[in-house]
Amino acid sequence: MKIRRIFDKRTWPLWLSFWLPLILMTGYFIYRHMAPFGSSSLLTVDMGQQYVDLFSYFRHTLLHDPSAFFYSFSKTIGGDMMGVWAYYLMSPFNLILLAFPGQSITVGIFIMTILKYGCAGLAFAWLLTKTRTQRGWLVPIFSTAYAMMGWMVANQLNLIWLDTTAILPLVILGLERLFKTGKIRWFAGWLTVMLIDNYYMGYMVILFSCLYWLYAATKYWQNFKTMLIQAAKFAWGGLLSVLLSAWLLLPTLYALLQSKAQYNVTKISWKFEYKPWKMLAKYVIGSFNFDQMPAGQPNVYIAWLAIIGFIVFFLSRQFKWSLKVSVGLITAFLLLSFCYGPLDLFWHADQFPVWYPYRFSFVFSFWVVWIAAQTLTEKLTIKLWQAVIALGLIAAGLITVALNLKHVSYVDAANLMITVGLAAISLVLLVLPKERRLWLYQVVALLLVATDMTINAVASLNNISYVSQAEFGQYTQALDTTVSGIQKQDHNFYRIGKTFTRTKDDPLQAAYNGADHFSSTFESIIPNFFGSIGQPDGDGVVTYSNGTLITDSLLDMQYFMDKTVPSAQADNNNYNSYIPVTSTKPDLQHYSKQITLSNSQATVYKNPYALGLGFGANDKILKLKVSKTTGDPVARQELLYQTLANRSTSALISAENFDQVVFQNVKKVVTLTGSVVNKQNLAKTGSIYFKFTPQTNDSYYITLGQNLTPSNASFYLNGKELKQYPTYRHTIAVNVATNSKGKTVTFGIQMKKTSLWLQNFTLYKLDNQQFAKSARKLQQSPWTITKHSSSKLTGTINIKQKHQVLMTTIPYSAGWHAKVDGKPVATKKVIHTFVAVPLSQGKHKVTLTYRPPLLVPGLIASGIGIVGTLAWFGVKRRRKTD
User: Fold this and answer.
1) CB neighbourhood size of 226 (10 A)
2) Shared domain check, 455 and 490
3) How confident is the model at residue 566 (pLDDT cuts 50, 70, 90)?
4) Which H/E stretch holds residue 519?
5) What is the pLDDT of residue 565?
6) How does the average pLDDT of the chain come out, rounded?
7) What span, in angstroms and rounded, lies between the C-alpha atoms of 648 and 652?
8) What is the pLDDT of residue 882?
9) Distance CA 504, CA 537 (A)
10) Is 734 helix (H, G, I), strand (E, B) or coil?
């Protein structure tokens, strides 16, 4: 009986709406050999470079370390995680990933992706059914058009956003119920779910809800008093949603103020961002490719049946003129938002997006399909004069695209002709009279929409390449094996560095304390600091690929993973394909090789100079003033290290001269650093070779300014290509020699352009003996950590000298709270970056606990919302019983 109730004549359209888009997309993924059905995967762009690692962190947190929900030392050298959860990981679909460890996580991503397609169709079908807008075969027609819209296809690689398409129809259903019944619980409930699931997309849903309220107020107009009541309930529903989700939103707000709000510049341009006619090209199938990701037009493709229905809405006499004006104004506002800078910025919360422009375009596709669903009646028939007008508008749009094909590289003539055919068939189908066998015409319409949306998905996604399952799986296995080998041998707190990189979130993927990271909620103090000490950095990203002996010691890089070179060249070539080396580090010769941890993929080294997470240091560091980003990174390293050790009179670093400089097809210059060199013969390659012969076994470094990147030149060390992370926006330090006494070292630069600026190009020598003395002095008073979790560290320290502090390399945050010998002590912010704790001379027990800022106020606000809601329902129930 229960099964019959689930599968009956009322529910089968819902099931079809769920399964049809799911099956269509599954079929395409099988065709593309996506895991588990082949050798490829769904990993591409941010999905492969960011999300998959965060999904691994999600599994680790839920299964092994719940404290990492608040803070993680796998987020570079440490960072708040609530903002990461709020943006990336709060989707309930992520629970599927718990069943897919390691390299099999790509299968979990596959399942999540197709389920989100299906749930988008189901949610829209639910909206159509509960509002009695459509029934029967017409329900899956419009739900499929919605679930497989161009935005969904183009952004499936941004899996974290796709939940929105399933939640938006339910929020709109809540608004419909608000106007029809006066009840706000459905609206407030699903808006709360949206804000918790992804606050960023939730912001866009809120903006669209405001527009929809204007539409609904026109649609259900009674009188001015009723409208005011509805407005008050709408506002209260939105406020209640914010209260119920405040436990997550308030800490996230703080995280954003420390991250994205600081390093994204928002300069408003009061003009159109491109010629508006280009939006017409997005109604051609396959109008999406890789170039559209960083900068392009909104992805708004939907089935032509729905487009025609939307046009006919304005021609139909069944809708009052005021409603048509309302729909027209909202449509115009949305279209203007797609091309006018200030409105675009408004939809993106006053922060222009980095890649994936017009992320809010899903609301426009929803809007078009929803209006079309209310227009096309059960008979799916329109009048001839309406068809003629629609034909004229469609023809004008497609002809405009055809005449400007050279200006829209993502559209080709073949796809344009297919689009013309789909539009023509859709128009003919709607014009045909359907007196007999109406159900057959409806089935044909469903097949037409399914074909339309499938062709667009195939044509669009065929333009995108994906990471192979082997490439991801082999690297993941190698990293996990090496990290687990270290962790089984050493259970203490330490950080691990490496000379190879798949993504900047490798530490999150393999659950170890590292120094790399990439996310949208990355505290700006870390990229600023890393850039200042010669590491590649950017907005929301750092890569610890250029560590020196000084920074390895300071940041507690106790272990280093280095690629093991296979003996056979064929194996080495294959190995390079999935374990790319991104760091040249001769300094590893100064570290002890851990033979017991060596495997076929990587060799582990232990750093004898690592200082630990905290150590006793001279309190002069509290007053040291350094610029946040500018200056010589090597000189800054020396200043910081020697100040901490109180050995400022003992120099660690000295600038060295090259013994010989050879110019090949390059005009000679006398001064190297800061010079601009030019080719002699522009048609030939220009190269410069810098040679020096070390007189000691000390470490040598060459600094390269941000102009000296692989886009401008190729770099070679002793005839071999320099292994270096390719992008950086500040001067970096490259380790070029160590233990090379009497051996000639050659650093080569091959120009890629006619001229090259030798920006901040300097050779430095580190006095290894003096460095070791400073390291040993700083190691005299270690903070010996006895207990540690992701958000709480307890240890002991013996301060042996006056005027010392506990210096840590924990990134400063108002969320860190210190207790010394059981008593609260205020922390200090050192060199714009780290936590320090003032201590008196003697032995102390120091505990650092992390509590996300604004978490307590958020919990209080959510508690008030929950208690108030329960009390309201209790009062209403009592009134009914009375």
Assistant:
1) 14
2) no
3) low
4) none
5) 74
6) 94
7) 9
8) 63
9) 11
10) strand
The CATH number of the domain where 669 resides is what?
2.60.120
Q: For residue 294, is the peptide bond before it cis, meaning its omega torsion is within 30 degrees of 0? A: no
Prediction pTM value: 0.95
One domain, residues 450 and 506: no
The DSSP result for 89-103, as a single string, is I--GGGGGGGG--GG
Let me know if residue 624 belongs to a domain: no
Structural domains counted in the chain: 4
CA-wise closest residue to 77 among 619, 728, 535: 535
What are the backbone dihedrals phi and psi of residue 369, each rounded to the nearest 5 degrees, phi first?
-65, -40
Residues 550 and 658 in one domain: no
State the Cα–Cα distance between residues 645 and 344, nearest whole angstrom: 51
- Extended strands (E) in 600-724: 602-606, 614-618, 653-656, 660-664, 676-678, 687-692, 699-704, 713-717, 720-721
- pLDDT per position as a tens digit, 825-856: 999 999 999 999 999 999 999 999 999 999 99
And the tokens for 632? 């010589």
Given pLDDT bands bounded at 50, 70 and 90, which one contains residue 593? confident
Domain hosting residue 343, numbered range: 2-461
How does pLDDT run across 656-695, given as a tens digit for each residue?
999 999 999 999 999 999 999 999 999 999 999 999 999 9
Residue 646 lies in a domain: no
Q: What is the pLDDT of residue 640?
A: 96
| E-only strand ranges, 637-686 | 653-656, 660-664, 676-678
Strand duo 557-563 + 495-498: pairing: parallel
- As given in the structure block, the two tokens for residue 533 are 């000490």
Q: Are 827 and 836 in contact (CB under 8 A)?
A: yes
Average pLDDT over residues 104-126: 98
Amino acid sitting at position 312: V
